[in-house]
Amino acid sequence: MSQLTDRAGQFPWCRAHPTATYLDSAASCQVPESVLVRLNHYYQSQHANVHRSNHRLGRQATSLLECARRRLAQFAGVDAENLSLQVSTTQVLNDLAWSLPIDWQAGDEILLSMAEHHANLLPWQALAQHYQLKLRFIPIVPDTGELGAWEDLLGPRTKVVSVTAASNVSGTIFNLHELLHAAHQQGAVSIIDAAQYAAHKPLAPLCQVADAVVWSAHKMYGVAGAAALAVKPRLWQQLPPWRRGGGIVTRVTCEHADYLETIEKFEAGTPNTAAVVAFAEACDWLSQQPQLESELQQLRHELATALAQCTDIAVLPSGQLHTPTLSFYHRHIHSADLAAWLDQHGFYVRAGHHCAQPLLTSLAVPAVVRVSLGAYNTRAQIEAFIACLDQATQLFA
User: Where is the Aminotransferase class V domain (predicted)?
Assistant: First the structure.
């Protein structure tokens, strides 16, 4: 077995908790020191409101924000004028759902997958109830974790295709390119939830095809409170501002407002500039780790191999391509109890339905334990994790 790079020393949390093993990176990553240093430096030396105050510090903060926008656009392989700075993937999906320039008619259809996080289900569910629309779902093949057949689900009444690029439960990375091309030919708006994908695979291929792609900073070694939306001009130029307030207007009277005609029209109010600047720094940090993903995949493979040898454990199928995330359940110990046991022994995992209840219902699995690896995990931690699982089986099964 090849050696894994030990990056834990770059993470202050890991240095502060040397006996703990963080295995919940799909929920939120720990933050590298370089990102925290950049965040602190902004607040200590560079903080001001942006696109408003014309004093030197205000101009500097505005320049930093726009520089971060360009860096995020470069990371996604899009032009900066097509990238909007947002707060969270969940908020963007809600805003998009209610702002699309579609003349909805009762019976129109929205195509999702059965693997969606609730953030990419509940907004469409509410929209469908409001306009009497029909939600259709691409099934997940139980034996492989891949998307099932979708061709018969996409038709002339399909107005939106909104799907995740990677499952937050199984880690499966879905092959979406044929679906996205077919959606475009059908005239449907295509939206990709890339929150679980962005830290592991290049975004550019998705951004080239989909109308909108959204992802969050805190799942790729940034901090909470920042997200990016890459959106095609053919879509964003038709969208109205989805929140009103300062920073998105050119002229306001008591009866009327003239809004910006640039991507900034979706950025009303004071942005979280510090989080955006840290987001760009996280992109830089990731770009400086060329071996990270292959090493995480190696570590995941070793974990999956060890779990497969445990007869009391069933691992959810995760397809040919996957993120360094997997989920499993114990045949004799409830997932919540097992997670509590692991927590007591310093292993931080998540248990439950992971905001993806329809997926687990379709698989007839009530709850799973999820292990999601990050840059700070090591082979020794995985070996200790497996030993802890074995101990739980001996004691409780």
Answer: 21-385
All CATH 3.90.1150.10 domain ranges in the chain, comma separated: 7-31+289-396
Q: Which CATH architecture has domain 36-287?
A: 3-Layer(aba) Sandwich (3.40)
According to CATH, the topology of domain 7-31+289-396 is Aspartate Aminotransferase, domain 1 (3.90.1150)
* Spans of the chain below 50 pLDDT: none
Confidence at residue 319, expressed as pLDDT on a 0 to 100 scale = 87
Distance CA 179, CA 154 (A): 9
The residues that bridge with 314 in the sheet, in sequence order, are 329
Residues noted as catalytic: 355
Strand partners, 138: 113
Chain centre distance of CA 68: 19
Contacts of 340 (CB under 8 A, 6+ apart): none
Amino acid at residue number 161: V
Residue 247's contacts (CB-CB under 8 Å, 6 or more residues apart) are 51, 52, 264, 267, 268, 269, 270
C-alpha count within 13 angstroms, C-beta hemisphere, residue 40: 7
pLDDT at residue 331 in the model = 96
Provide the terminal-to-terminal Cα distance of the chain, rounded to the nearest Å: 32
Nearest to 89 by CA among 355, 382, 389, 304: 355
